[in-house]
Records
---
Amino acid sequence: MKFGLFYEIQLPTPWSDGDDTRLFRETLEHVELADRLGIDAMWAVEHHFLDDHSLSAAPESWLPAAAARTRNIRIGHGIACLPPAFSHPARIAERISTLDQVSAGRVEFGTGESASRMELEAYGVDPKTKRQAYLEALEQICNMMAMSPYPGYKGEFFSMPCRNVVPKPAQKPHPPLWVAGKPDVAAKNGMGCLGFSVVSGDMAKAAVDQYYDTLARECVPIGHIVNANIAMLTNFHVHRDELVARERAEHLKFFGYSVSKYYLPGGKARPGREQAWDAFMKVKDSIPQLGADNPTSAIGNPEQVRRHLRALQNAGVDQVILMHQGGRMPHDWNCESMELFAREIMAEFRDGDEHRLEAKRKRLEPAIEAAMKRKAWMKQVEEVPFVESYGNVSFNAKNYEFKGASDSTQRALGLGPKS
C-alpha cells in the first residue's frame, strides 16, 4: 500500500500579519521532509474563497516550488477544478503538462467539478450542469495533451479551433487521471478514485468492491489510459504516547468544522468576516473524538495507527492519504509525527507491494483491454489549417526613430527601403 499527504493549507481566522506567508513556507518544508522520508505522493487541493478552510487557491503556482525542492514524491493536483468557467480547458492542459515537465514526470492529475456554493456561484458555474461541463472539459484536456495538433472542438460548454497545445507532458500520453470522491464516476471513466471522505474499513471495502466491479463491466476511458487505483483519506497523527497524539489531533477537528460551514446543510459563512477559531473552540468538545474507537482515524501510538491502516489495506485500498494538517497544528508536531510514521510504520506496508501490483496488473489486464476497445477516439484532422496572423502588433516600430540602425535592421522593422 502507498501513502500520500493531504495539503489544504488551512489557516483558521483571525490571522496575524505574516501567518499566511509562514504557512506556505512550512508547507514546502513539510513536502521536502516527506520526500526525504520516502512518502509516495502529496496532494494539493484547489479551493477558492473558503477563507479559513483552505489557502490553496492556486496550486499550479506553489506545486512547481514543491517539485523543484523534491526528487521522488509524486506531485498531485487533488483536485484541479475543470468546469470551463473556472479556467479554459487549454489553460489547464498547459498547466498540468508544464508541471509534469518541471517535475520530470511526477504529476498525478486529480480532477473534479467543485461542490461549494462559495466557489460555483463566484465563477458562474451552474450546479445543475457542472457534471456535464466537467466531463466535457476533462475528455478534451486529455486530447489536448495527447494529440498534435489538437483538432479543435465545438461543445456545449466551450469551443476552440485547431491548435497544438504545448508543452506536452513528460508522461505519455498524459499523467494518471483521478477524480475526487466518486467511485462510480471514477470507474466508469477509467480514473483513479480520490476518496476524500473519511470512512470505516467496512465502508472502504464496499467502495473498493464497487469500484473494481464497475471498472470491469462499464468502463469507457475518458482519457487515453486507465488509472485503476483507489485512495482513501484518513485523519492522521502518531505519537508514542496515545494521549498526546489524541490531544494534538484535536486540531484536526477543525477540518470537519470548516467543511460543515461550506458544504453541509445549514452551513454558512461571511466572506472576509469569519472568526472561525473562536467559534470552533466553543463547539470543539461536542465534535466526536478522533481516533480511539474510530477504525479509520490513524491517530494514536504506533500500534494503534498500524491497526487503523491495516483495516484500509485489508479493504483493498491502494493508497492512504494522510490528513495531517488542520486547525492550528504546530509545524513541529506535524514533522515529528511524520518522521515517527516513516521510521516505524511505513516500511511494513511496503513489504510485498511489487508482487501485489503485478498480480493486480494481470487481474485487471482483460478488463482494461476491453475498456480501451469501448472508447470512441477523437479523430485527427486530415489537413491541418494555416492560421493567418491579424497583421498588427501592440508595438509599432514606425512610431520610433532608430538612428544608426543598419539598412537590414531598418528593412526588418519596416522602416527603410526594401531591397
Note: The first helix runs from residue 19 to 37.
---
Amino acid sequence: MERATLCLGNDNALTHIAAAVGAPTLTLFGPTDERVRAPYGPRTRTLRGRSLEQIAAQPELDGRGAMEDVSIDAVEAAALDLLHAGGLR
C-alpha cells in the first residue's frame, strides 16, 4: 500500500492502514462519524453524502442508503484533488 497511487475505500481497516503507511487515501463515509473514525495523515481526505444530522433524522438507520448518497462525480472530484495535491496530473 505504501506505493499506491491512491487508496479509495469506505470506513474500514484497510483505509486506516493505507493512510498509516502514507498512501493518498480517500475514505467514503455513510452512517459513521468521520470526525471520530477517519484515517489520519497528511494525504487523507474524507467524503460523505448526507450530513450525520440528516441521517440521524431518518426513522430507521439505513447505512446502505447513506453510502448511496455519495455521488460518483463527488468521488471523482475528491480523488483528483487528492492526486493533484500530491503532484500527479
Note: The first strand starts at residue 7 and ends at 10.
